[in-house]
């Protein structure tokens, strides 16, 4: 293949394991001489379409997960403070991400991480236009323009297509990475993803 | 606490990720100055009780998992050849393990791994008394006695209690490790388990 393959990073901003993965994915891409294509999706639709469900939906798994989310974050040196509201509908923020991809693609990774930190670390609101604007403004982006993407018909259609794409490529949970056609589901498959991009297929 | 804590390793012989974990757990225990308490259980009952389900039960997750099982094995330098029959009912082999725990506890880990290799590497049958006897005999154990545990009323009761215990302690999938009261679900949490037993709680 002539062009350098990206790592397609499918995520939902409400996913704690995707937060942990988002903090690691750039270093992995760099080690493997790849770039990251940040692909926001909405797990509600993914779960509905695939029949899969979130860990928190099962009582026994939920009881475990509520301890495992922050422990996994700590394991990687990250903070995770359980949000007041969980899960959230990340549509507003996801549309803002799509808007930024079209205007300042080089800023997208940092914006995604800023949104995750607002939600999972500092207790911010990323479900409203005001909340998304605040996160964007704080990092020097045009928050008003990004928040306004929430009411942009073209962006709305792009978001629908993004969700459908995530389902079509086989996603059933988050994060879900695809590189060279190979899928890696879960933050806990990043070690395998790293080996893949650094050493090659195995 | 005065006595050295064990790592309680709950597993089902039909679980591919438990096979991979069984190949790693002794080194982790040794690094943390612990011993492993091998605790066979039966996921069918665990899933029924908790409402959780096997990865292969969901079409999208199953399609991914059938590739992820052997890739994960390869990642750790292990072979995994997809069995002709999957899943299996591991009752006969699990009762043999309980019998061996009572008679030659120091052999249990190797017997568990021999059963896993028979099932996931060399295509052996571990669902029948004959199959379990063959695996045991091949490693110099009294295969006939271990296979006969399948019809031992006391062992049958122990197996029921073992399954109930796995449910009671919160298990919802395999492998499920408990150390110092802390639970680690999945082969992909062994890194966290290692950190826990080597460096302490985090």
Automatic annotation (TrEMBL), chains A, B:
Catalytic activity: 2-hydroxychromene-2-carboxylate = (3E)-4-(2-hydroxyphenyl)-2-oxobut-3-enoate
Group of enzyme by EC: isomerase
Pfam family, one: DSBA
Domain DSBA-like thioredoxin intervals: 6-195
EC number: 5.99.1.4
UniProtKB keywords: Isomerase
Top-level taxon in the UniProt lineage: Bacteria
GO molecular function: isomerase activity
Family: Belongs to the GST superfamily. NadH family.
PANTHER family hit by this protein: GLUTATHIONE S-TRANSFERASE KAPPA (PTHR42943), GLUTATHIONE S-TRANSFERASE KAPPA 1 (PTHR42943:SF2)
Protein name per its UniProtKB record: 2-hydroxychromene-2-carboxylate isomerase
Organism: Limnobacter humi
């Amino acid at each position: 293949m002539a062009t350098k393959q990206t790592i397609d990073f499918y995520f939902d901003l409400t996913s704690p394991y995707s937060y942990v993965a988002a903090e690691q994915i750039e270093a992995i891409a760099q080690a493997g001489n790849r770039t990251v294509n940040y692909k926001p999706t909405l797990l509600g639709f993914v779960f509905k379409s695939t029949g899969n469900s979130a860990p928190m939906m099962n009582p026994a798994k939920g009881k475990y997960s509520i301890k495992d989310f922050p422990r996994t974050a700590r394991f990687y040196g990250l903070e995770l403070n359980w949000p007041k509201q969980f899960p959230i509908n990340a549509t507003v923020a996801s549309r803002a991400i799509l808007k930024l991809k079209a205007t300042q693609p080089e800023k997208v990774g940092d914006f995604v991480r800023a949104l995750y930190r607002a939600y999972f670390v500092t207790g911010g609101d990323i479900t409203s236009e005001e909340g998304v604007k605040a996160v964007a403004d704080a990092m020097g982006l045009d928050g008003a323009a990004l928040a306004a993407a929430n009411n942009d018909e073209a962006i709305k259609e792009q978001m629908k297509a993004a969700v459908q794409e995530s389902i079509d490529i086989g996603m059933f949970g988050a994060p879900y990475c695809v590189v060279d056609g190979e899928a890696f589901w879960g933050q806990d498959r990043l070690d395998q993803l790293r080996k893949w991009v650094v050493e090659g297929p195995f």
